[in-house]
Amino acid sequence: GPCYCDQACARTLDCCHDYAQTCPVIPCVVSQWSAWSGCAEPCKTTYRVRTRHVIQEPRNGGEACPALEERAGCVEYWTRQGTECQQSLVPALITTGGFGKARKKRAAADGNERAGYCVEFQLVAVTPGCLHSHHSYTRWMLYLREGHTVCVECQHPALHPTSQLCHGDGTGSQRNQLLHWQAVGNHRCKGTWRRIRQLDACSCPSVHSFLFI
């Protein structure tokens, strides 16, 4: 009689003699990923999306289809109308203050050295990932401890040419508002802080001095 493509026969051991030829296993086939979308919302840490679609459904016990949507972290610093986000909403990207010496030398050589400024913050929350910074270029993250006051310097080329501010410096934030920061070089090292004040020059110990990127 006719051979029916019922994969249960593989378990009950009563498949037709020509089952494998008549009912070949066909796995799911999906398209390539689409391009990434824009951020779901501007001016905040959110996500972007990419999708793919099913070209061939699985048949006869073939491999099931994989996920058809993927999300990734995303930040956009511009509104849908093209204006810059408020500084307080932009997460600050920071690195060790020791990097500033080489940066200042390059800026002076290029004739681009501008007067910067410094912002004092009190660290409120620090992720455990900051303590797992074993590479020599990430050891500075060990000095990011909850409750400590840190100085973060804004200098060329992080200074925005128009506003003369650095992204994420907390300008315009409300008193005691929690602001977000992210350490460059270790995506697991991030946290929140409160802006204390802006200074014309940094006065913190060198281990607690950092730079806006």
Automatic annotation (TrEMBL):
Record keywords, A-Z = Disulfide bond, Glycoprotein, Signal
Q: Where is the SMB domain?
A: 1-28
Family matches, as InterPro entries: SBSPO, SBSPON_C, Somatomedin_B_dom, TSP1_rpt, TSP1_rpt_sf, TSP1_spondin_dom
Pfam assignment, any one: TSP1_spondin
* Keyword Cytoplasm among UniProt keywords: no
Could you name the domain of life of the organism this protein comes from? Eukaryota
Which PANTHER family does its entry note?
A: RPE-SPONDIN (PTHR20920), SMB DOMAIN-CONTAINING PROTEIN (PTHR20920:SF4)
Q: What is this protein called?
A: SBSPO protein
Can you name the source organism? Answer: Pomatostomus ruficeps (Chestnut-crowned babbler)
Gene name tied to this protein: Sbspon_2
